[in-house]
TrEMBL record:
Taxonomic source organism: Amycolatopsis carbonis
Name of the protein in its database record: Substrate-binding domain-containing protein
Gene3D superfamilies named among the record's database cross-references: 3.40.50.2300
Coiled-coil region list: none
Domain Periplasmic binding protein: 52-303
Region ranges (Disordered): 27-48
């Protein structure tokens, strides 16, 4: 990722009745920072112009904002891509209406990060039935008939890697806590399952407490304070999300605690800088990179141009792409700082 790209505004507004603002961006201007700007490949030569519709939840925390930043910046890299961005919404009915508007606009490809995969499955099916390929980003639809390709993180492996790191740091002995994300999301269940399965490899380690926050600073602080009060002694905690981790660390400081280690999740810039400084209980974070949005736009462009991925033998775009949940520590943080998010 090129981190010295200068920031500039590049959105032009458009309005669709009843569904809020849509913004179109083309690539004749420089992309903002925090974008996935991998080296150009054989398929980057300009081709048929592709209009990509993008619909996602409201950017109510840093990771979701970084998703939209990465999508827009990737579109800016390509002179043959127009990205039409629907206003983010956490309401399934509103997001469904936005997808309807993008279908009616006859975009070539649709990239959707659904607020709720189950509730938005019919909207994905509708687009596919209309002949518009759907790239399902992150939160997965209930049916593969609702999307052409899924691009997302490995939530289960995220939990596994966090659990194994903690197990190794504790040398197989001790007690741990878990500060999860939103419990109604399937991804939270997958992260917890991976964490529990990894801890099963360390019979001397017991998970003695768990609480669920909501990916926000206030809920992270509140739930962490409750865990600290309920557990005056423990050795490690895994926090699923670095945004809520800001609040969790505030609670730790307020409690004057430094007798355990903490592992974060997602890979925010604040978390990586804390890991690099090594001045808090936060010693590692497990990546869930928002650069997946750039990959989704890149694949949408190739789908719209009937191209494959140049480094693969197959002529078609893969049906799924799963990012890897690397563990970021003080030893390797400089490698991953360029892909962190605000």
């Amino acid at each position: 990722m090129n981190t010295d790209i200068r920031r500039r505004a590049f959105l032009t507004g458009a309005t669709l009745a009843g569904v809020g603002a849509l913004a179109a961006c083309t690539s004749n201007e420089e992309p903002p920072p925090a974008a996935a700007t991998a080296p150009q490949g054989a398929q980057d030569a300009p081709g048929k112009r592709v209009t990509v519709g993008f619909a996602g939840p409201q950017a109510d925390h840093g990771w979701l904002n970084a998703i939209t930043v990465n999508a827009r910046a990737e579109a800016q890299r390509h002179s043959d891509v127009e990205l039409v961005v629907a206003e983010g919404s956490n309401d399934a009915a509103t997001q469904s209406a936005q997808i309807d508007a993008l279908i009616n606009r006859k975009v070539d490809v649709l990239v959707v990060l659904p607020a709720d995969g189950k509730q938005l499955t019919p909207a994905g099916r509708k687009a596919m039935d209309a002949g518009i390929p759907v790239i399902n980003l992150d939160r997965i639809f209930d049916s593969p008939q609702a999307y052409r390709t899924w691009v997302g993180g490995d939530n289960y492996r995220m939990g596994v890697n966090a659990g194994n790191y903690i197990g190794q740091q504790l040398k197989g002995q001790g007690t741990v806590l878990e500060l999860a994300g939103i419990d109604t999301l399937e991804l939270t269940a997958q992260r917890t399952q991976g964490f529990d399965d990894a801890l099963a490899n360390y019979p001397g380690i017991r998970k003695v407490g768990r609480a669920a926050a909501e990916f926000t600073v206030p809920t992270g602080q509140a739930r962490m304070a409750e865990l600290l009060q309920a557990h005056p002694q423990f050795n490690a905690i895994w926090n699923h999300d670095d945004d809520q981790g800001v609040g969790a660390l505030q609670a730790v400081r307020q409690a004057g605690r430094s007798d355990f280690l903490m592992v974060g999740g997602a890979g925010s810039k604040a978390a990586m800088e804390a890991i690099k400084s090594d001045n808090s209980v936060l010693k590692a974070t497990v990546l869930y990179p928002p650069t997946m949005a750039a990959s989704a736009v890149r694949l949408a462009r190739l789908l719209g141009q009937a191209k494959g991925v140049s480094d693969l033998a197959e002529q078609e775009i893969p049906a799924s792409v799963t990012t890897f949940s690397a563990v970021v520590t003080k030893e390797n943080v400089d490698k991953y700082l360029p892909v962190s998010f605000e």
